[in-house]
Predict the structure.
Amino acid sequence: MAGLPLLLALVVTVLVGTGVAVVRRSPPSREGTVAAARRHATALSGAAVAAGVLAALAVPFSDGSWGTGEPGSGGRELVLVPLAFGIAHTVVLTVGELTWPRPAGQVRRARLVHRGPLDAAPAWLVRVGGAAVGLAVLTVVAAALVADDDGRGISRSGELWARSSGPFPGWFYGGPALAGLALLIALAGAALRVVATRAAVVTADDRIEAALRRASAHRVLRGATAAVLLLTGGLLGVAGTAAHSLGSGPTPSPLGPVGAAVAVLGLACVTAGSVVLCRRAPGVPADQPVPT
Amino acid sequence: MAPDITVDVASPTPPFEQIRSQIAGHVRGGLLAPGDRLPTMRALAADLGVAVGTVARAYGELEAGGLVASRRRTGTVVTGQPARPPVGDRVRAAADALVRAAREDGVDDETVLDVVRAALTGGTTL
């Protein structure tokens, strides 16, 4: 299936994203609590990406069928590569948010403000994530409806001809993808709740605390959204290629151009996923002079 | 802007009482209006570095006092200022005298409040 290109896209994107994060760092913070929180966030972000990449690399070989030549061997695992990245990334971020530096000292201060799970989340990422999930579900359902009974290919026939093409993301591939997608959504929701309720960073500048929390939510949504976009792009790419192949050749049909358009849409989704994954989290504002 | 509360973990006043009294003060002072949502117990406990049960006890007492209400969907919400018993003239005069004395001696407001809290929790020192 589209696993290897997706894996390659994921690795290249992670390298580019890491480069962007290193080049465009916020200036160092003078407040000890802020500096500690930023160190924690940086380590957390790196660990989450590393865990995601390791999980993505491990998935194709998880059942031992990769490269055996059996029908669909390894294909179902490969389609889960982006989801494995997203799930591992989100789990590590959640653990990191749960271990966020706690307030210390004799006198502790808190603002009496309610924080909801989406309050700190960048609106554009919420919208893109929601659209990506919708498109992924639509892709899986639509592909399952037109796929063969075995869920691995697509066939069409006329009076004097019959053709089939594959692989095609029917239920055989789409079922596990949908289950993984549901798990990823649940984990991302839980992570956003943890971000909303974790301890505030003790600072004289409220903008810094807000920026750190916004960055935490950004990291959660960035990884999950990119994973869904890469998954959707892979499914659309495979479906489009199979449909195009079926609709071309000696018995051309409208499936040809439709398949090509779907494949291009898949490529656009993969590109969008890569861009989302490279988007740097909101920076921390420069320290203000601490009022005396 | 939402008001702050502080908790002094070394204070003889228990943390739950510090939380309760400050939120009650903000409601009575108008800094928290009816309908305002308080932080979740878990979030406030994390911010203050205290146990969730400590915040739960403070919220429970505020609810028993009619200042807040816990709702399933919206969490803990300020309901308003309950009717308060009238303050006697003698108490009001004593408070005025205390403030006057504190001003003359240069004692700051926080210290005055600490003195009053200590007197309330430890009984009269007269």
In short: DSSP finds eight helices and three strands in chain A.
